[in-house]
Design goal:
349 residues; Quinone Oxidoreductase, Chain A, domain 1; 2 domains; seven-stranded mixed sheet; six-stranded parallel sheet; 10 helices; 18 strands; globular
């Protein structure tokens, strides 16, 4: 395939608001040994894009420090973790039959080999991502989804949101028939949690704003809690015997107020801090009920393989709420930050 020498990309050269997103022309990267070059068909937005741009992740020793996902960002950086596209060039040692195949890129960098490795870096934060016409990826991290019935937009919606959701559900050991609470249920991860937990046969209680209740119920929630009212009281009314699992991207007061609602042996899995990262709670609610609080950052390679299996079979249907051209990345991130939507926002380079 003919590949140009330059491409359009959206870079950030410093931490800041949407104004730091700059559409520019850069050289098309060349794949090295073990790598492929992917022509980007669609790249989905995530909260990670906002927090990386803002430097909002902090550091273990300095929570207020400006930082990317795993440390200071090496500027300039092309954002975008979630890429669907087609392979147009391969480096040495890569099977040439991958060229022209439709793929989804696993955006994680892992700490080890093997199916249960932990993610320690993210495309679009620790290395350049998909807010561009082309992106480099390890051949081991591209998954052939040529036969999937999903659109490119839907495929791009999967890696971070659905990968994070599946990682949470797997780490929670969610079982059929259990009662599960999902916070932030109208967002990308939240809606994915609702869909996957419902498909696994769980009874799903979801928390969202009043205007989004119908959309969240349509995604598979059995009961929906209005976050503007007394959330703990509503959960207790909907599940008087308690909940088995909480899948939480909010934390903050919800964690403090919700822990007493866990049943014996319950699991509270956290993958976000939209409601605040500093939390105080009664630790007796943990040890007296043999409960667990579990941190969950994205997915493992095994989780991502399972996600791609679901994608090839069309067993999950991501909701796309809006699409933008690449040069409107700032407007797209503004739309994401307003949180008035249900589902995923996608850029089309």
């Amino acid at each position: 395939m003919n590949v140009p020498e330059t491409m359009r990309a959206v870079q950030i050269a410093q931490y800041g608001g949407p104004e730091v997103l700059e559409v520019t022309e850069v050289a098309v990267p060349v794949p090295h040994a073990g790598e492929v070059l992917v022509q980007v068909s669609a790249v989905a937005l995530n909260n990670t894009d906002l927090w990386t741009r803002e430097g909002a992740y902090g550091r273990p020793e300095e929570p207020e420090a400006l930082s990317g996902w795993r440390g200071p960002i090496d500027f300039p950086r092309i954002q975008g973790a979630d890429v669907a596209g087609r392979v147009v060039m391969v480096g040495d040692g890569v099977d040439k039959s991958l060229v022209a195949r439709r793929v989804v890129v696993d955006p994680a960098d892992y700490d080890a080999e093997g199916p249960d490795a932990n993610p320690v870096g993210l495309m679009g934060s620790e290395r350049d991502g998909g807010y561009a016409e082309y992106v480099i990826a390890s051949a081991e991290r591209v998954h052939d989804v040529t036969e999937s019935p999903l659109t490119d937009d839907q495929l791009a919606a999967l890696p971070t949101a659905y990968g994070t959701a599946l990682g949470m559900i797997e780490r929670a050991r969610l079982q059929e028939g259990e009662t599960v609470l999902v916070s932030g249920a109208s967002g990308g991860v939240g809606l994915a949690l609702v869909q996957i937990a419902h498909a696994r046969g769980a009874r799903v209680l979801a928390i969202t704003s009043e205007s989004k209740i119908d959309a969240v119920r349509e995604a598979g929630a059995h009961e929906v809690v209005d976050r503007a009212r007394d959330v703990a009281a509503q959960i207790h009314m909907a599940a008087p015997d308690g909940i088995d699992v909480a899948l939480d991207v909010v934390a903050g007061d919800l964690l403090r107020d919700g822990l007493p609602l866990l049943r014996e042996g319950g699991r509270w899995v956290i993958a976000g801090a939209l409601g605040g990262y500093s939390v105080a709670f009664d630790v007796r609610r943990l040890y007296l009920r043999n409960a667990q609080v579990i941190g969950s950052a994205m997915h493992t390679p095994r989780h991502f393989d399972l996600l791609m299996h679901l994608a090839r079979r069309g067993e999950i249907q991501p909701v796309i709420t809006a699409t933008f051209p690449l040069d409107q990345a700032a407007q797209a991130q503004d739309e994401l930050a307003r949180r008035a939507h249900v589902g995923k926002i996608v850029l089309r380079p």
